[in-house]
Amino acid sequence: MMNGYESHGWFMGLGMGWWWIIGIIVFIVVTWLIIKNVNIKNRSYFPGNKSSLDILKDRYAKGEIDKEEFEERKKGLQ
Questions:
Q1: pLDDT of residue 1
Q2: Structure pTM?
């Protein structure tokens, strides 16, 4: 026969068994939110759908390359 302790312990053990699953779910959700937030911030550093020529024009406009290098690289893209 089961005494009160054993039956109470069984139900408590059954309930405790679910806490680790809930903990894992919470951990996964928090990790996913952090990764999503970091990815949104990093998107601003990457050029969108710019072509190579657009990037080359931007570099020329910023003064990173001179006209001669711009023309040379432009020929290489065509």
A1: 47
A2: 0.39
